[in-house]
Known about the structure:
This protein has 300 residues and is mainly β. It has four helices and 24 strands. An eight-stranded parallel beta sheet has the order 2-4-7-10-12-14-16-18, with no helix packed on it. A six-stranded parallel beta sheet has the order 5-8-11-13-15-17. Strand 19 (181-182) and strand 20 form a beta hairpin. It starts with 12 loop residues before the first strand and ends with a strand.
Amino acid sequence: ELQNTDVEFATKISGWILQRDTEFGNGLPNGMLGTFDLNGNTLTVNGKLNQTNGTININQGLLNVSNEYLVNSNGILMMLNELDRVKVDGDFIMQSLISHNGKLIDGKMYIKGNFNQINGNSSNFEASIKHTVILDGTSVQHVTFESRVSAFNNLILTRDKDSYYKFSPDRCWKNITIEHKLYGNLLDEYVSYIDIQRGSTIDEPTSPIQEGYKFTGWYKDVKCTILWDFATDVVEGNMTLYAGWEKEISETESEPETGSQTESESESQTESETESQTETESESQTEPAKKVYTVLFELQ
């Protein structure tokens, strides 16, 4: 196995097994050859990554690209394990001449820019089984597939689908999840992805604030019945915590009515109150729209 200190390269990477976390400060515009095995480590590319004529095997590691990531010519991206992670801050472009059938079967890709699948090979982004793409950009993201054979397997959107994503064709996924909507309630853009270690405790996220409601804690289930204990509970796998709420009682709702009412007055008012009950109750019981907040925790 090659150690990091054993390898020097001027323009291309050729056959490297990563032994520790590594960072390239000026990108890799001239590409790579052979197989680059992340081997459970983190490779950070500060700039563009143009992957030509080589294979990047994520192999339970993390690939961070701060700019555009282009898989071109005979380039291959291998994601075969649950812990595989690829994070791209710019655009991701798949234009490989090689079929990726069976090569994108697990792990997660986070993409903040646009996604473009271009027909070098019609199956060059044929994701399957458990492979997941999360589109988590802060502006409108454009997604284009030239081939009907290539498609997302699991697609997760972190913002409103109609406002922040433009798809061509309109359906280019097998499964889709819109994380910022649960039971029709907007998340107010409070979704975050936090990498952690299996068996570890986690720090409590910042408590959200919502007018008309009191925050009651972070829960393990979407119905908010089982609290997460940050002192003792440990993470055993990827999970989501949900913010719990209870409606605040206003002073006018909690104060008793003043004055007294005679029995005859009460009886005379009963009929008129009953007639208008539906409309009055509907107006008086209107509550602020309760939003759903979540934080996603993922194993490193």
